[in-house]
């Protein structure tokens, strides 16, 4: 098995607080991995370390065989990695179309100039195609800052997809979405290329269990268990620390 992402004994301390303590994780190409855990478990911190948004206090992150532990996030697109954040980060003053253009232009860290002349037919078609995949065809000329919450999350996803990553990290993509939007999100995630490696933090267990092949459960900065969705669903320890009554619902 070739690991696309290797996390080795990663520890992150914020002052006296250990957000992560010696996390090890191997993620295979094309794997769909969900990370579950209660608030404060360290899930986003783990994403931040993998995405280069923070450097770990100890340990290493290797992406496609390259040690990226102390490489900042701007190097990640070159390695084919894209992520979304819990709070959407699209440019509020730009339209949906323009935000998608920027994501396309920044693909693999190659920041092409975005002068009007460079916005050719191909780019326009591609932006429209990406918008259609996240059901934003009707909002291409809407200003991002004026989109409804669910649509802003869809735009965030569109921008990540437009980057054509090999490894995609999604931080709670379903948060704040309506039931219908959640269904569409699952459809979208299921439609992604098999070769894409997907890491998902998700509080909606139904979505996590439907999308993931493997689930890692974290609590207090450590991995509590890992297994198939069925194994995790059936684990009494996981019920106690996280799933609570929801598991039996
Ligand atoms: N920049 C920071 N400075 C100080 N403490 C932080 C920082 N980022 C996270 N923490 C703390 O680290 C711990 C883990 O936080 P993290 O956001 O990774 O958890 P999480 O599992 O993603 O939680 P949630 O589900 O609420 O998003 C928490 O106690 C949090 O308060």
Order of SSEs: EEEHEEEHHHEHEHEEHH
Low-confidence stretches: 245-249
Number of strands: 10
Q: pLDDT average, as an integer?
A: 89
Q: Gap between N and C termini, in Å?
A: 36 Å
The proportion of strand residues reads: 15-25%
Number of domains: 2
CATH hierarchy, class of the largest domain: Alpha Beta
Count the DSSP helices.
Answer: 8
Outline, from the CA principal axes?
A: globular
> How would you sum up the major sheet?
6 strands, mixed
Strand order of the largest sheet: 6-7-8-3-9-10
Q: From the helix content, strand content and strand pairing, which structural class follows?
A: alpha/beta
GO cellular component, one term: plasma membrane
Protein name: Branched-chain amino acid transport system ATP-binding protein
GO molecular function: ATP binding; ATP hydrolysis activity; L-isoleucine transmembrane transporter activity; L-phenylalanine transmembrane transporter activity; L-valine transmembrane transporter activity
Organism: Saccharothrix ecbatanensis
SSE map:
Blueprint: E1 3-14, E2 17-28, E3 32-36, H1 43-50, E4 58-63, E5 66-67, E6 81-83, H2 96-105, H3 121-133, H4 149-162, E7 167-171, H5 179-191, E8 197-201, H6 205-211, E9 214-219, E10 222-227, H7 229-234, H8 236-243
Parallel strand pairs: 3-8, 3-9, 6-7, 7-8
Antiparallel strand pairs: 1-2, 1-4, 4-5, 9-10
Helix pairs in contact: 2-3, 2-4, 3-4
This protein binds adenosine-5'-triphosphate (ATP).
What does this structure look like?
This protein has 8 helices and 10 strands. By secondary structure, it is α/β, with parallel strands linked by helices. Strand 9 (about 215-220) and strand 10 form a beta hairpin. The chain has helices at about 45-50, 95-105, 120-135, 150-160, 180-190, 205-210, 230-235, 235-245, and strands spanning about 5-15, 15-30, 30-35, 60-65, 65, 80-85, 165-170, 195-200, 215-220, 220-225. The chain has 2 domains: about 1-80 and about 165-249, P-loop containing nucleotide triphosphate hydrolases (Rossmann fold); about 90-165, no CATH class. The structure holds adenosine-5'-triphosphate (ATP). Adenosine-5'-triphosphate binds near residues 14, 40, 41 and 45. The site of adenosine-5'-triphosphate (ATP) has 11 residues, from strand 2 and helix 1.
């Amino acid at each position: 098995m070739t690991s696309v992402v290797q996390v080795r004994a990663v520890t992150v301390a914020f002052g006296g607080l250990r957000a992560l303590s010696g996390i090890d994780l191997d993620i295979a190409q094309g794997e769909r991995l969900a990370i579950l855990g209660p608030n404060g478990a360290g899930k986003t911190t783990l994403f931040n370390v993998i995405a280069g948004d923070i450097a770990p206090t100890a340990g290493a992150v290797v992406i496609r065989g390259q040690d990226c532990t102390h490489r900042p996030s701007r190097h990640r697109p070159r390695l084919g990695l894209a992520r979304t954040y819990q709070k959407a980060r699209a440019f509020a003053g730009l339209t949906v179309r323009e935000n998608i253009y920027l994501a396309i232009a920044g693909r693999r860290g190659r920041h092409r100039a975005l002068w009007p002349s460079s916005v050719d037919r191909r780019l326009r078609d591609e932006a429209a195609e990406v918008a259609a995949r996240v059901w934003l065809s009707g909002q291409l000329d809407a200003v991002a800052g004026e989109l409804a919450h669910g649509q802003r999350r869809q735009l965030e996803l569109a921008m990540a997809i437009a980057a054509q990553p090999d490894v995609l990290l999604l931080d709670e993509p379903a948060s704040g979405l309506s039931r219908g939007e959640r269904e569409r999100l699952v459809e979208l995630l299921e439609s992604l290329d098999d070769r894409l490696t997907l890491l998902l933090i998700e509080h909606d267990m139904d979505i996590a269990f439907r999308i993931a092949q493997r689930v890692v459960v974290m609590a207090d900065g450590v991995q509590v268990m890992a297994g198939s969705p069925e194994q995790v669903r059936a684990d009494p320890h996981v019920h106690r620390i996280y799933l609570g009554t929801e598991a039996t619902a």
